[in-house]
Write a structure and sequence with these properties.
Layout: E1 9-15, H1 21-38, E2 43-49, E3 55-56, E4 61-63, E5 67-68, E6 77-81, H2 92-103, E7 107-111, H3 114-120, E8 128-130, H4 133-142, E9 147-149, E10 153-156, E11 159-162, H5 167-180, H6 182-191, H7 208-212, H8 217-228, H9 236-243, H10 247-257, H11 262-280, H12 285-291, H13 297-308, H14 312-325, E12 331-333
Parallel strand pairs: 1-2, 1-6, 2-5, 4-12, 6-7, 7-11, 8-9
Antiparallel strand pairs: 3-4, 10-11
Helix pairs in contact: 1-5, 1-6, 4-11, 5-6, 8-9
């Protein structure tokens, strides 16, 4: 729990270039609504950037901040808000400031891909954490010593991490419920027309069994085996043996419910994982190929081009070009410290 129930909680949002506006807004609006519905100043928030200058989020809108890192203001909690291309961020000033906050006992959190920056600053060691599912594979490759879960959010002592989208809303509602009671959290959820407050054990993505129905456990088991064996792919015979079906039976299940043969589905899984690593990490292409079960970089490039219509190297260059273009015409939106 952040702070105590009888004092105003001081929250800092550390904005990183290309941060997700939806994820940031989901967290902030929960605090604002808590103040509005309670009629009290339960939370105060401040926007911070590395150098004190405005920060542009992933949709091109620019936010003015209250001050830069290394400020002497004290916070109960600071949340790192990030989004696209987090692996390209080089922020020594922010890293040093976050480490200083940790020494002061400040709760540190991450929204969307902010987990990556806390991990790189060695501030998630010995803590459970999570990150947006699209960055999960790349984060696990870069930080193999960390326990990075696929859950919606993780609260482990003084570390709060969550996925992107609306996951920060659920994390903040969980915090509000802990500090100020379930009635206030439920009222906030109703104001935002949320069907329910998802908890810490909810997964980020809809399980396959929910998409195809629980009546096909063998198919779900086969897909789970594929997802767990990306670097060293299993053969179709091995998959059939493990799920207790013949090759022909397994092929019929894939064709009926997933509209493709098992080998094609497996290949697309591996290529999608490769695309995540390609766009969300700085791993060399040859290492990505090996991590996704391809025998060589040329073979990987051919399969990738056949599926995505351009080779991996061009995909990475195109993403870098889009990032540069996105800085072209930002719109300014002023934000200040609020109650």
């Amino acid at each position: 729990m952040i702070g105590t129930a009888d004092t105003t909680t001081r929250v800092g949002f550390y904005l990183v270039p290309q941060f997700s506006m939806l994820a940031f807004g989901s967290a902030l609006e929960a605090l604002r609504m808590a103040n509005q519905l309670s009629g009290q100043s339960l939370y105060r928030w401040t926007l911070i950037s590395s150098d004190g200058h405005s920060v542009t989020c992933s949709n091109g809108i620019s936010f003015q901040v209250n001050h830069g890192a290394q400020t002497h203001e004290r916070y109960d909690a600071v949340f790192v808000c990030s989004g696209l291309n987090v692996h390209l961020i080089n922020d020594e000033a922010g890293t040093q400031w976050l480490r200083q906050l940790d020494k002061q006992g400040t709760v540190l959190g991450a929204i969307c891909t902010g987990t990556y920056l806390l991990a790189r600053a060695d501030l998630l060691n010995d803590h459970r954490c999570t990150i947006h599912w699209e960055n999960l594979a790349a984060a696990r490759e870069e930080f193999p010593h960390l326990v990075i879960s696929p859950e919606l959010f993780e609260i482990d002592r003084k570390r709060y991490t969550c996925a992107g989208g609306t996951a920060p809303l659920d994390m903040m509602l969980s915090e509000i419920r802990s500090r100020h009671g379930s009635e206030l959290a439920t009222r906030i959820s109703e104001q935002f027309m949320c069907e329910r407050i998802r908890d810490q054990n909810d997964r980020q993505r809809v399980p396959l069994t929910q998409r195809i129905g629980a009546s096909q456990p063998k198919l779900a088991e086969a897909v789970s085996l594929m997802e767990a064996n990306i670097e060293e792919p299993m053969t179709l015979d091995e998959l059939s043996h493990h799920v207790g079906l013949s090759r022909r039976q397994l092929e019929r299940l894939f064709q009926r419910y997933l509209h493709c043969v098992p080998t094609r589905y497996y290949l697309e899984l591996r290529l999608e994982r490769a695309r995540q690593l390609l766009l969300q990490s700085s791993m060399p292409i040859v290492d990505i190929a090996l991590a996704c079960g391809f025998i060589s970089a040329p073979h990987f490039s051919k399969c990738y081009r056949d599926t995505f219509s351009l080779p991996p190297r061009d995909e990475r260059r195109r993403a870098a070009g889009l990032l540069a273009d996105s800085h072209g015409h930002p719109k300014a939106v002023k934000r200040s410290s609020a109650e």
